Structure formats: C-alpha cells, structure tokens
Amino acid sequence: MNIKERIKQTKEKITQLYLAIKSKDTPWYAKAIGGVTIAYALSPIDLIPDFIPVLGYLDDLIMLPLLIKLAILLIPKEVWVDCEIKAKEIWKDGKPKIWYFAIPIVLIWLLVIYLVIRRFL
Predict the structure, then answer these.
(1) pTM flag (> 0.70)
(2) Which of 3, 19, 32, 42 could bridge 83 with an S-S bond, Cβ 3.0-4.6 Å?
(3) Which of 22, 34, 38 is nearest to 74 (CA)?
(4) C-beta of residue 34 within 8 angstroms of C-beta of residue 20
(5) Tens digits of per-residue pLDDT, 69-88?
(6) Per-residue pLDDT tens over the stretch 4-63
(7) CA gap 25, 32 in Å, rounded
C-alpha cells in the first residue's frame, strides 16, 4: 500500500470514528477513545514536533494508527460496519461531502486559543 492510499484510508477511518461517536449504540468508553483519536488526528500539536528529523513523524505513523485500532476494538462491529459504509459515501469523490464535521473541532480549538490568550493577558 502506498502513502496516498494510507492517507485516504486514514481519512476514512477518522470519519468513521466521528460517525461512530455520534451513534447511540457506541459505549461511552469507545466514544472517549474515539474523541481523543479524532482530536489527536486533527490537532496541530504533536507529542513529538514534526521538525525533529525522523522522530517527528513517528508519532503520526505509530500513535495515530494505534489509537485508531484501539477505538475500532471498542466499537461494536455492527456500528463500525455501518459507519464504514457512510464514511465511504462521504469521501466518494475524494473530498468530504459533509464539511460541517470540522465545526466541533474548530470550535474546540478556538476555545483553547481563547483560554490561553485570556490566561496570559
């Protein structure tokens, strides 16, 4: 599998996680791990900064897939399969059809930025 296919697969899995979190059939602990995974995937802050040669990308290459796998293990199989079908439909043309999935993440980061600015000013 080449890098473009892995990126596409990761985008679909993150979308699946988002859909699974919204499902009422997903247990709370799976929602928590899924939320952490999505936040980590979309976060501009890494555990190891990307500018550090080799090590900077290891957290993205190791941590994100591990978090995704953990979340998948905790989500009921039926929910995951249903979310997979929906995620493939969303990413059918290579771009998400439903752009508003990003709104909660943007709002969280705006809140974090606001709190940091407020704390230091």
Answers:
(1) no
(2) 19
(3) 34
(4) yes
(5) 999 999 999 999 998 888 88
(6) 777 778 878 888 898 899 999 999 999 999 988 888 887 766 666 666 666 666 767 778
(7) 14
| Residue 21 structure tokens | 């979190």
* Helix runs in the chain, H state only: 3-22, 28-42, 55-58, 64-74, 77-90, 103-120
- Under 8 Å between Cβ of 47 and 59: yes
- HSE value, Cβ hemisphere, 13 Å, CA-based, for 53: 0
The structure tokens listed for 120 are 């230091």
65 CB-near residues (< 8 Å, 6+ apart) = 10
Residue 23 half-sphere exposure toward CB, CA atoms < 13 A = 23
**Distances in Å between the alpha carbon of 1 and those of 8, 24, 29, 31, 47?**
11, 34, 31, 29, 26
